[in-house]
């Protein structure tokens, strides 16, 4: 049986790009997403391209649903070898304006979701006793400041920390935990961020996006495929000695 990768939030955007790449790398693919209709459409597309895939409805902020996704993956394909905590949401708000409701909502998805996904994946991988890879969606906003993305940025700093701690705790089981830190990727998320920033700053539609893109040393915005190439490496045996890392893939915006 081939290896199996679960990608949360894989119906569209970066998650879809990762799922497609891992499918082409030979993984059987499980897409878990709240938007089950879109997840099913994506799976149909993949099957037409000879990628063996399954769509499962799952809200990452619900612990029981994350465990149910893993169970469905195992029932269908026999194992979970790679688990990508990709699902995430954005919010555009000055720190002074962040409401308790919004703060709770974004932490529920981006942080609690990553914890629950890690728990569900680790339990199954330990049972399989064959190691595994857990790969988290961080961001360059999980390492540095982005104006008006305070709550979002705080969740990604948390994901960065969780990646490091999970890596230390799970290393004894040969489970590696790493994270990808994209920059400015052209997905639905950035359409919403642009909308929010435009409103805050009195700009025209597309201006906030363009301002960020103009700041990228490699002089183009990022695609899901750019991110997927890093994740493909992290999921592969070539990365078997790497754990606890949060790796920038951002066209050179953040250099250390
Ligand atoms: N777009 C960007 O520029 C960057 C994105 N990222 C991160 O990459 C990840 C993916 O981002 P995008 O593809 O841009 O987002 P997106 O908004 O285009 O797609 C997100 C997907 O996650 C699903 N989703 C949302 N909440 C969910 C939940 N509670 N449970 C299950 N599924 C849920 C949505 O239905 C959607 O299919 C996120 O964690 C994001 O923070 C990191 C850096 C840059
Ligand atoms: C959405 C996001 O993480 C950035 C850096 O734009």
UniProtKB/TrEMBL annotation:
GO terms of biological process kind: acetoin catabolic process; bile acid metabolic process; fatty acid biosynthetic process
Active site: 152
Keyword Oxidoreductase: yes
InterPro entries listed in its UniProt record: 23BDH (IPR014007), NAD(P)-bd_dom_sf (IPR036291), SDR_fam (IPR002347)
The UniProt record lists the keyword Oxidoreductase: yes
Binding site for NAD(+): 12-14, 33, 86, 152, 156, 182-187
Cross-referenced NCBIfam families: 23BDH, PRK07231.1
Family annotation (PANTHER family): 3-OXOACYL-(ACYL-CARRIER-PROTEIN) REDUCTASE, SHORT-CHAIN DEHYDROGENASES/REDUCTASES FAMILY MEMBER
Reported function: Catalyzes the irreversible reduction of 2,3-butanediol to (S)-acetoin in the presence of NADH.
Membership in a protein family: Belongs to the short-chain dehydrogenases/reductases (SDR) family.
Name of this protein: Uncharacterized protein
Lineage: Bacteria, Bacillati, Bacillota, Bacilli, Bacillales
């Amino acid at each position: 049986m081939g290896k199996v990768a679960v990608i949360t939030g894989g119906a569209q955007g970066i998650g879809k790009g990762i799922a497609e790449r891992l499918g082409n790398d030979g993984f059987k693919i499980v897409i878990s997403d709240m938007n089950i209709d879109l997840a099913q459409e994506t799976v149909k597309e993949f099957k037409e391209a000879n990628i063996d895939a399954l769509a499962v409805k799952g809200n990452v902020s619900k612990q029981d649903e994350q465990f149910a996704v893993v169970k469905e993956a195992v029932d269908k394909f026999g194992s979970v070898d790679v688990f990508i905590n990709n699902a995430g949401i954005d919010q555009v708000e000055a720190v002074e304006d962040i409401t308790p409701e919004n703060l709770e909502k974004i932490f529920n998805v981006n942080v609690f979701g990553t914890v629950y996904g890690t728990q569900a994946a680790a339990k199954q991988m330990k049972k399989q006793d064959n190691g595994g890879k857990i790969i988290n969606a961080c961001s360059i906003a999980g390492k540095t400041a982005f104006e008006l993305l305070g709550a979002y940025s705080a969740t990604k700093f948390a994901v960065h920390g969780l990646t490091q701690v999970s890596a230390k705790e799970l290393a004894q089981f040969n489970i590696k935990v790493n994270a990808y830190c994209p920059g400015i990727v052209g997905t639905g998320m950035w359409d919403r961020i642009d909308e929010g920033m435009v409103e805050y700053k009195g700009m025209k539609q597309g201006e906030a996006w363009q301002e960020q893109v103009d700041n990228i040393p490699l002089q183009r915005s990022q695609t899901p495929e750019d991110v997927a190439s890093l994740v493909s490496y992290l999921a592969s045996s070539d990365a078997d000695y790497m754990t606890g890392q949060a790796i920038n893939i951002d066209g050179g915006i953040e250099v250390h």
